[in-house]
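Quick start: load a record and inspect it. Here is Glycosyltransferase family 2 protein:
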Amino acid sequence: MKILIHYKAKYPIKVISSDPEEIKLVSTTCTGALWELAEKFPEELIGWCEQDIVGNLFLENWKKVFHHDFVMASFPVKNSFLPESIGYVDTMPFINITKNVSYGTWLMSSDVGGLRGAVLQRFFPLLKNEKNLGYLLNSIAKIGQQNGLFCYSEPELVKSSQNNYNSGIASKRDLFRFVYQHYTFSRVAVLLLCFLIYEKSFPFLSYVRSFFNTKHYRKAIDLSGDINVSKKKIGESETIDVIIPTMGRSSYIYDVLKDFSAQTHLPKRIIIIEQNPDPSSFSDLDFIKTEIWPFEIVHHFIHRTGACNARNIALEIVQSDYVFFADDDIRLGKNLLENIFTEIKKYSICALNLNCRQPGEQTTFGKIKQWGSFGSGTTVVKSNFAKRCKFIAAFEHGHGEDADFGKQLRDIGCDIIYHPELELLHLKAPIGGFRQKPELEWEKEKPLPKPSPTVMVYAIRNYTREQMRGYQVSLYIKFYSRQGIKNPISYISSMRKKWRKSADWAKKLMKEKGG
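Running the structure step on this input writes:
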């Protein structure tokens, strides 16, 4: 382990090492010193630390934090680099960090952190000319996260941390440059608009200058290669319960059960929540009792519809160490569960989102990476995390419950990883389904709320102030070409009414149903 000690990210002071050797640096800049250490010590962890924080380092924890080769972690003890206004252009959960847990995010701080030398070297050809340490670290993480680098805000890097720190030491010029380099062109315009509307500022020069930089958006970095199996212990048991809500799809769920019964690693229990709104109806799943299955099947037949309620009922009775949130119209290869546990151990994963494809569909994302959402029909989660969360009733019969559950997991320290090689087939059955949708009250109103009130519930629960404002501006721009009002002033007035109506309905849902 080699840790670069620096003065306020301006210049290097010294290197502390896990070995007794003295290391002299040739470079006089922090970024140059970081590249120098990576080249000299590719097999070691290369860290960085602001000189005033050295006494607060919790080095005994670092091996647990950097538990495999592709982990990058930092923590803003005193300063974060990018300001909260990055939320104007990014509504992903990586932005709204919960600071007292290990939280998946590409937002990095130059206060303290680390990354393996050989992995750091992969970014040198692309970022070798960057002189700002904070900017460099955030660029590495932003690009790396999409290419298989696991990036975290990690409080366990230090012995103690404060809740308040300086958010955003980056200049407006650096902010606009970063957004231009790492996002689409339209995001730079949205950022300028948000500054104008919400901060009564018009940084036009920073906006223009941003276009004279090299784009890094969706830049591919090869992080392939064998990694050391994670040194982090996640428990020895590999028992798993499967949760399946269903309605009107008896033939499909029969095939799902057959696929699970053929697994080389069998589930312990399958929990089926069958729904039918007719109180005089009977179950369609006779085969649960008439056939012999190699696992226990827990079957609940209820007359209340809704995926949120069904999954919450099932979560209450989960007993195994892991829970598989599954749909009732999927097909699985016989080695899927066995392969899932191989990858869970390899990377020390507590939530694994599978590659869910429809027949004939090609894989969109071909690299393992931290996932910005959550699939409530495609994810395996460690039960001690899953059972601390719930599907919020305010989302019932709408949209957003998946992403909200995922944000709940992140907020308690459970990162979500997508794996392209762990595939299941989603048939999108044309009949039945547990999302039987009643006519919703707000759908009778004119004009309709915009966005959908359940989407607004998600935004209220999970966005920062800047994310909410940026989402509103982006929605107005996106929807403009899809409607008939072409006078901008009339359009904005109309959208404000729809937005307020959506917010009112969202607050009503949250008050009446919880959230």
